[in-house]
Amino acid sequence: MPWRWHDASVTVTAWVLLGAAAVLIGLAKTALGGLGSIAIAIFATVLPAKESTGAILLLLVVGDVVAAWHYRGDADRALLRRLIPAVVPGLLLGVAFLAVVDDVVLRRSIGGLLLAMAALQLWLKVRAPSSTSAVASSRAAGVVTGAASGFATMTANAAGPVMTLYLVAQGIDKRRFLGTGALFYLGVNLCKVPLSAGLGLLGGDTVVRTALLAPLVLLGTWAGVHLVRRLSQTRFEQAVLAATVVSAVALVVR
């Protein structure tokens, strides 16, 4: 169902879906990261796939700013230092990929990527915690996660599942999880803005759409802050992984 500003019957449905996605983005940023991928699936359904990557980017930045501020004292900068050096090559590879693929290939790539990340996270949960932690804390794991996050976020705004895998494997508490992710996503998404603009993905319609949907992102961030306070550490990890699995399936079966 492509987006049509001039088609009233489509516009109403599209706004309802995009509004729901905006709330999910806010929830994802301050509570359950996997919900962000459901929002990606909604945007990729309503809009052409390439346009959807630019349309959702500015809304993600809105949520990132709120989350980074709220969890500003909880980020693990040592973990971030392992990831950052490999992010830029991943971003550049993503730019090259976006420049040569069409909407169909991109949509299938988004779905396949999310499903693969969900499968990895389920595999992670059945591994022995000690061996998983040892692998996750290695320098190689940081490099792979950084590069994969850069590519995934540039092509599909889907760094969330990659980071969820990495951070859950670290065995860190939920506030440290959210604070580290918030600072990482904010930095990466701000870097993507000029790259996306250069690819022609941030047109005037996208800016207007962002301004209209931003209040719903803020509503979602507020709800997420209150939700995460009610979740135990175990329930938090289970909910994050379950949300990612649902989001992966939602896009693949589209």
UniProtKB/TrEMBL annotation:
One of its GO terms (cellular component) is plasma membrane. This is Probable membrane transporter protein. Belongs to the 4-toluene sulfonate uptake permease (TSUP) (TC 2.A.102) family. The chain crosses the membrane at residues 12-43, 55-71, 83-101, 144-169, 181-202, 208-228. It is found in: Cell membrane. It comes from Terracoccus luteus. PANTHER family: MEMBRANE TRANSPORTER PROTEIN YDHB-RELATED (PTHR30269:SF23), TRANSMEMBRANE PROTEIN YFCA (PTHR30269). It holds the Pfam family TauE. It is a multi-pass membrane protein. It comes from the Bacteria. Keywords: Cell membrane, Membrane, Transmembrane, Transmembrane helix, Transport.
